[in-house]
Every structure is written in C-alpha cells, then in structure tokens.
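Consider the following assembly input.
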Amino acid sequence: MSDILSEIRDGVKVITLNRPDKKNALTLAMYDGLAQALRAGDADPAVRAMVLTGAGGSFTSGNDLKDFLNNAPRGDDRPSLRFLKAISEAEKPLLAAVRGPAVGVGSTMLLHCDLVYAAPSARFNFTFTNLALVPEAASTMLLPRLVGHQKAAELFLLAEAFDAAAAKEIGMVNAVLPEDEVLDFTMAQAAKLARKAPNALKFTKRLMKHHTGDVPGQIAAETTLFEQQLKSAEAREAMTAFFEKRAPKFS
Ligand code: COA
C-alpha cells in the first residue's frame, strides 16, 4: 500500500500520510507523492478543497531522519522542495486535521494551510535547532508574521513541543476538537467550502497570500478581481439564488 493515500469525496480531496509505524515520517517518495497529489488536486475541476491528514493517530514526525543521514538533500528540484512549492502555491482551500506528532515540516507545512483543526493529542514542534538545522518552508517569515518575533523566537530557538491548546492560542490552529471528531469536522468544513463559488475562494486566498504590503496596491488588486467576479457566472448564480430563495449551485 502506498505511503500517500488520496481519495476524492464529494468535491474534497483527502490526502493521507500513511506510514503509521514510523509516525508518518516523510521519505523522498512521500514528498513526491504529496507534491503530485496537491498539484493534481489543484488542477482537477472536480476537486474544490483539499484535506491533509495522517493515519494511525499521527500527523507526521517530519522528515525521515534516516533519509537525512543517508540521502542528504541535493539540487533545486528535490522532492521536499517540490512539495513545498506545491503546498505554498496551492490555489484551492487547503485544510489539515492533526492528531499526534506534527514535528518539523509537520508543523511548518501547517503555516501553508488555510484551516487547521487539531485533537488534544496533537504535539507540535519546530524542532529544527534540536537537530542543529534551521527552519524551512518559509516558516522563518510566516511564523513571526503570525505570532510576532519573541514568540517565534521561543518556538524556533527553544524548540520545545507544544500542545493543541497552545497552538490555538497563537493562531496556528483554528479549533481543537475531540480525538474521534477532528477528521469528520475538518471534512465537514471542507465540504462547506466545496459548495461555495470556487473562483471567489481561489481569488480571496490569492489576495491574502500574495500582496506587497501596500494598501493602494492591495485595493487595486482587489478591485480588478472584484470587477472580474461581478461579471462572472458564479456571481450571477449566487445573486439569482438569493432572489429565488434557494441555495446556489456552483459547478
Ligand atoms: N524519521 C525516521 N523515523 C522516525 C521518525 C523520523 N522523523 N520519527 C519517528 N520515527 C520512528 C522511530 O525511530 C520508531 O521506529 P522503530 O519502531 O523502528 O524504533 C518509530 O518511528 C516510532 O517512533 P517513537 O519515537 O518510538 O514514537 P514516540 O511516540 O515515542 O515519539 C516522536 C514520537 C515523533 C515525538 C518521536 O519519534 C520523534 O521525536 N521523532 C523524531 C522527530 C524529528 O526530529 N523529525 C525531524 C524533523 S526535521
């Protein structure tokens, strides 16, 4: 059985890390599988949202440490970088359901997700300095932006594990759900997104992620997409449905 499982359920692509005996530690082949699954989901019109999760009560214990020792990463086109490019460029809503360890890249990849739900068993750790490494996945930019310099310094430099409640407090996690509900809840949130106007979601995500930080520039970018959407079939359907007192249907 593959170490990366994918299935599409009602417009939601569920991507499961499936190497439970190693706490879903990521091998080169798994990074490749993840990159392919994310790219394929983004390109498939039948997919409207994607969910990342892990099998066997773990999210992921991060990069496989044997791979780090035996296959030192080399080259710009290596699987881990292909994965990071795919997750950081994903245009569709990306959700994560986290149980158990989310270590190293298991924590940094969450900074690229739009909605993150965690169970009480979740244990996050930006562990890089414990291995004499530095953080990756643009986390040295994204985490300080999320939590401020001092908190990010605590998480990166001390690199201690923290739980779901702490992750929620700093805004890395949207909500903490009971162990046996976290995946179903994440799927239900994804299903809600899958029923919404796909381009409206895609452009909203793009506007939030890709900005230069200047207000006039952002207003101009929003105006372009707002006017484009106003003329779109999906906006017509949304507004017609309002007047016809029915739920909109987007294909
Ligand atoms: N790479 C390779 N193997 C790993 C691994 C990793 N990142 N994380 C766990 N494993 C393996 C263990 O070696 C063990 O294998 P074994 O059964 O053959 O001995 C198995 O997975 C179970 O791990 P174990 O440590 O016994 O589980 P635990 O519940 O006590 O602890 C963790 C879970 C995730 C806290 C702990 O395994 C850990 O700290 N892993 C390393 C995390 C890490 O540093 N990742 C790199 C980030 S850059």
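The radius of gyration is 19 Å. Ask yourself how this observation constrains the way the partners meet.
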